[in-house]
Write a structure and sequence with these properties.
Blueprint: E1 3-7, H1 11-23, E2 27-31, H2 34-44, E3 48-52, H3 60-70, E4 75-79, H4 84-92, E5 97-100, H5 105-119, E6 126-129, E7 132-135, E8 140-143, E9 146-148, H6 152-163, E10 168-170, H7 171-179, H8 189-201, E11 210-213, E12 217-220
Parallel strand pairs: 1-2, 1-3, 3-4, 4-5
Antiparallel strand pairs: 6-7, 7-8, 8-9, 10-12, 11-12
Length: 232
């Protein structure tokens, strides 16, 4: 039975989540604050976490960061904070999804199923493009043999590009495959994460792998050879 850890300082919300998830066949553990959540996370190793942001003591963002240091368990934030800046802060802390209260329970279940499917064990697969390698089993990314530390969402974004090398991926496809829903027309979340990836994969803008195709999207392409500026 898959285990879900639900974290919220509102006992009524925890009760509703617990009863609804148990009815769907999940084993549920609950925590009323960040301290309890981290203890439970370390001891029980849940398959997925539902995490409130606004809690006394350790808030949800810090809890998520601490969880990310321990393992790559899917974390879905449940919160009443609906500003784009709050969503970006939540995802930057390491969360995999962001659900605004009040939410439709069936939609929450669908997102839970989607994230759990991604975590199901599968065949070990090593992808390679140019001098970049990505291991889907260990979540290791290396460029020219050097290990590169990526967050969960950065890894998913890079994995998408490496599944479709040299192809131009538009914003709609990236939203659908990596986030599973749209942040809204004004969101720049894709640009933000492209910038994060480039800062980790490239050295001062050199050896560029992720290219912008203006008005269309982005593509993973081989680095351009260095220009020889030496006088003949």
């Amino acid at each position: 039975m898959l285990r879900i850890l639900a974290v919220d300082d509102d006992p009524e919300i925890l009760d509703l989540l617990s009863r609804g998830l148990q009815f769907e066949g999940y084993e549920v553990e609950t925590a009323l604050n960040g301290e309890e959540a981290l203890i439970s996370f370390r001891q029980s190793a849940p398959d997925l976490v539902l995490l409130d942001l606004m809690m006394p003591g350790i808030d949800g963002l810090e809890v998520c960061r601490e969880m990310r240091k321990l393992r790559d368990t899917p974390v879905l934030i449940l919160t009443a904070k609906d500003a784009v800046s709050d969503k970006i802060a939540g995802l930057d802390s390491g969360a995999d999804d962001y659900v605004v209260k009040p939410f439709v329970f069936d939609e929450l279940l669908a997102r839970i199923r989607a994230h759990l499917r991604r975590k199901m064990p599968g065949d070990v697969q090593m992808l390679q493009f140019s001098d970049l390698t990505l291991n889907t089993a260990t979540h290791e990314v290396r460029r020219n043999g050097q290990l590169i530390e990526l967050t969960s969402k950065e890894f998913e974004l890079l994995y998408l590009f490496m599944q479709y090398p040299r192809q131009v991926l538009n914003r709609e496809m990236i939203y659908d495959k990596v986030w599973g829903y749209d942040f809204g027309g004004e969101s720049n979340i894709i640009e933000v994460y492209i910038r994060y990836l480039r800062s980790k994969l490239e050295v001062q803008g050199r050896n560029k792998l992720i290219h912008t195709v203006r008005g269309v999207g982005y593509a993973l392409r081989e680095p351009e050879p260095p220009v020889n500026t030496a006088a003949k």
